[in-house]
Amino acid sequence: MSVLVYKHMSTVVFEKLPALDYKNACVALPKEYGTPAWEALPEVAAIRNAVFSLLEKLDAHEGIVSKIRGKPVVIKPNLVIVYSNIGTVEPEFPETTDPRVIDALVLWLKQYTDTITIAESSGRGSPTRASFAISGLDRLAKKRGCKLVVLEERPCELYLLPKARVSRTLYIPDTFGKVARGEVFYISVPKLKTNLYTGVTLGFKNSMGIIPYNERQHAHHYDINRKLVEMMYLIKPDLTLIDGIVGGNGPCPAPVYPVNSNMLIAGSNPVETDRAAVRFMGFDPKSIPLLTIADELGFNDDKVRIIGEAAPANGFSSPDFSLLSDRIIRHFPNIRVLYGIDKHGSDNPENADMDVRAIEARCRGGCVATMRFAFEMLITEGKSSAQQGTILIGSGIDGYWLDASGKKYSVQDIAALKGYKLCVGSCTKSISGICDQYVAGCMPLANAPHAALHKLTKSRCAILSLRNRHFPLFVKALLETRRTRRKLLKAGAMLDMDFPVLDSAATTAEPGAETHATPSWQALSVPSRTDPKTLKRQLRFEDDSLLASLTGTFIPNRIPKALYRAQAVLTALITIAPLCAGFLALFGLLHGVPPSLLFSIFIGILILHSFEVPFAIVAEAKRRRRKKLDQISPSSEPSGKDAVKVMIKTLLIGYPTWLPEILGIHDEDEAFGCRH
Q1: What does each C-alpha distance from 575 to 236, 564, 585, 606, 654 come to in angstroms?
Q2: Rounded Cα gap, residues 205 and 41, in angstroms
Q3: Mean pLDDT throughout 528-550?
Q4: I need a labelling partner for 338 at 20 to 30 A (CA). Which of 418, 598, 639, 671 fits?
């Protein structure tokens, strides 16, 4: 259990690097890493000298060496997606922490501790094992004697955050449970870059990569900034070291473009370090909700000591999160975006003058930015499209959705539009029936809109293909992670919160009258997951997640569904084969077998299948209730044409038409927007 520490004067240090070309190897270590030729490179020496100088200056004011000496250290880099030869038009983008900075940091730490762990969990669908290998951190760890920890392969602990409003309970890997308890020294090493969801990605935003995947989905919408700040009730970096050697400007987590900022920034307070970095990027800290909320909740320091040059850099600009921007229209001129986001961004949305840009900003942290990420990914894969289509976001404002010009569209108007229609986000579920595809979630899985947009534009994903030079490594990493996670689950470990994630899923108690003396966190018992039914569901989820990473679309129970579809083909062939053979024999095209025998076999199979009809009727009633096609009761039966269709399907195909429904194989479909 922990209580917030009282404020004091914190220190932020800026270290300017000499003017060299740092772009080469800023994403991935070359094969020559660790050789004398690599060590002799001027940029390697410059980075190492800068990291050592920076940390020694910080130590002079904050005494960090005394806090590190003899203590285990956990380093958290920022490896959301390592853009190095993964199928994009340009081979590399400076999205991730420069591995040369990690190398220099490890060398500095080795003077004071022998226990150094590099821990990370990349973005969902991007296995961390592959990120370590692509970036070269696996080779770095081997050479420098560090431990690598893939956080999605660690069992989780559960904590209550009494002062939080968004995620009052939080799952974190056991590696960071030690951080929460103060057993290790935690260093956050983010990239200096802009971000679609939060404006910037810096020190404490880097904590998003700590929590497990499903936990990340929770409140990844209009509340994302408060969620990230409130995580500091449990986990705060002891040291933040921001890699601004080659900054990143653009719509992260989509690729960002290089900024020659030539700067390292370090500090003892994560909020003040981020605030100084935001000013260095040329932004007003008051325009960054992460910082204003952190101030509101008291994570800032009243006084800050700034050491070193801090003149604003050139090259950073606010990330373009809009789906109505010139860039999107230029590449996808015939895709219409209709907004009906009716809450969250305005205290009085019905009097918001229906300004489309303001409406769009109401859920920047969810569907809007996720869809913008999807568009940017297609652009960086070299895709453009004149394909006609419509994308809907939001549940509607007084029954209408608005286009870029402010024109209103009713449900009937939208249904009459030509082209492919895509509903994005759980808010659109009520109108998903008029769309060709519905992407569920609040927010949706990050790669689901990406996959849906490829479908809308009739294009193929370059990253999930052999254009990605690391695709075999990617698949191998997914399989290794799946094996490890399944082993942990079978041993009874908790790896994440349940999926799909509901807004109420991470709240166990209503906030009360908290005071400064209220504990910041409290450890909770992890729920037992040892019953066979739960374990079976979790193991299936692991398979579904792996396949979603390879296809871009999450479909629950995908493997059982595929097996039943294969069985349906087989049973249909077995049923109609005697009938077809009978006709061949009847017309003299098949000799040696009497037609009557073949027809009798066909009729016998139909009779056997007829005993399945009552079960099929029950299954159809369950299916209709699940899809809410009518208000029939559990004992009611389909009637008329529906009953005839059920009977014909059952007679010709048999158990594969009804058994999956009885067994609950499709029970989760509606939550994920699956269509059959």
Answers
A1: 65, 16, 17, 8, 9
A2: 32
A3: 88
A4: 671
Q: 621 and 638 in contact (C-beta within 8 Å)? A: yes
Q: At residue 125, what is the residue type?
A: G
Asked if pLDDT for residue 21 goes beyond 90, the answer is yes
Q: Is the pLDDT of residue 193 over 80?
A: yes
CB distance 149 to 117 below 8 Å = yes
73 Cβ contact list (under 8 Å, min separation 6): 109, 113, 115, 116, 117, 184, 185, 186, 187
Distance of alpha carbon 353 from alpha carbon 376, whole angstroms? 29
The overall average pLDDT reported for the chain is 91
Q: At a CB cut-off of 8 Å and minimum separation 6, what does 322 contact?
A: 328, 357, 360, 368, 372
The residues that bridge with 397 in the sheet, in sequence order, are 400
72: left (phi over 0), alpha (psi -120 to 50) or beta: beta
- Determine the Cα–Cα distance for residues 267 and 240; give it in Å rounded to an integer: 5
Strands (E), 124-229: 147-150, 156-160, 169-173, 185-189, 191-195, 199-201
Interval 465-489: pLDDT, tens: 999 999 999 999 999 999 999 999 9
* Residue 401 φ then ψ, to 5°: -125, 150
CB of 251 within 8 A of CB of 321?
Answer: yes
Angle between helices 595-610 and 641-653 (to 10 degrees): 120
Beta carbons within 10 angstroms of residue 672's beta carbon: 21
Does the reported pTM lie above 0.85?
Answer: yes
Q: Distance between CA atoms of 176 and 163, rounded to whole angstroms?
A: 20
Could you tell me whether strands 156-160 and 522-524 are parallel, antiparallel, or unpaired per DSSP bridges? Answer: antiparallel
Does residue 410 surpass a pLDDT of 90? yes
Phi-psi region of 250 (alpha: psi -120 to 50; beta: other; left: phi over 0): left
> Terminus-to-terminus CA distance in the chain, angstroms?
49
* Separation between Cα atoms, residue 484 and residue 489, nearest integer Å: 9
In total, the chain counts a number of residues equal to 676
Q: What distance in Å separates the CA atoms of residue 303 and residue 181, rounded to the nearest whole number? A: 27
Contact 14, 306 (CB under 8 A): yes
Q: What is the dihedral of CA 392, 255, 380, 329, to 10 degrees?
A: 40
Q: How far apart are alpha carbons 473 and 59 in whole angstroms? A: 40
Give me the amino acid identity at 246: V
- β-pairing, 437-439 vs 420-424, is parallel
What value does the mean pLDDT take over residues 188-204? 96
Rg (CA), the chain: 28
Structure-block tokens of residue 563: 């097996």
Q: What would the two tokens of residue 436 be?
A: 């060709």
